[in-house]
Amino acid sequence: MGNGKRTVVVTGFGPFGEHTVNASWVAVKELQKLGLGPDVELHVHEVPVEYQTVKSMVPLLWEQYRPQLVVHVGVSGVATTVTLEKCGHNHGYKRLDNSSFCPDSQCCVEGGPECIDSIIDMDAICKRVTNLGLGVSLSVSVSQDAGRYLCDYIYYTSLHLSQGRSAFLHVPPLGKPYSGEDLGRALRAILLEMLELLPQDQDTNHCEHAH
């Protein structure tokens, strides 16, 4: 439809706490091996679990690649499915990061709205991916609470910068129950559906309905 390739940036997080190997980065590296097909230029980056690094790194990714879509991936110790997060939150960042820092204001963007929703319809993505049947008993669910830690923080930062043109996925820890390969395949399926549903022309905001 559009001319030329579409650019997608995907991030995973580095180790933190008990997650000495972060399943999100393993999943993203598996996704990179699989690729998103010849029409999509995929760039992946590992992000340290640090508020200040996220704050400086995310705008650089948007500037450097001018992507159609940025997807951040994080691990959740309580997740048992691949979870599509609908929105990011501005306040409530009290947990210290890897460098024992948390924002004084406990918020992401001073004066920003409390919640920002992704323009991607996560319920629709969830249905479409579930209907694909990924060949692994992989289930996908939807959530409205990304957890008020670096996952929520990076998501809100990206949503704020991109007027909602971002997504966030939580994956379970490796082996609980999925392997890195399973997660990579799931990410690929989810991202391809997101690209299908994403309004093609990012310069016009007025015509984003399906025809």
TrEMBL record:
CDD domains: Peptidase_C15. Signal peptide: none annotated. Keywords: Cytoplasm, Hydrolase, Protease, Thiol protease. One of its GO terms (cellular component) is cytosol. Pfam families: Peptidase_C15 (PF01470). It comes from the Eukaryota. Its EC number is 3.4.19.3. One of its GO terms (molecular function) is pyroglutamyl-peptidase activity. The keyword Transit peptide does not apply. Removes 5-oxoproline from various penultimate amino acid residues except L-proline. PANTHER family: PROTEASE FAMILY C15 PYROGLUTAMYL-PEPTIDASE I-RELATED, PYROGLUTAMYL-PEPTIDASE I. This is Pyroglutamyl-peptidase I. It comes from Aldrovandia affinis.
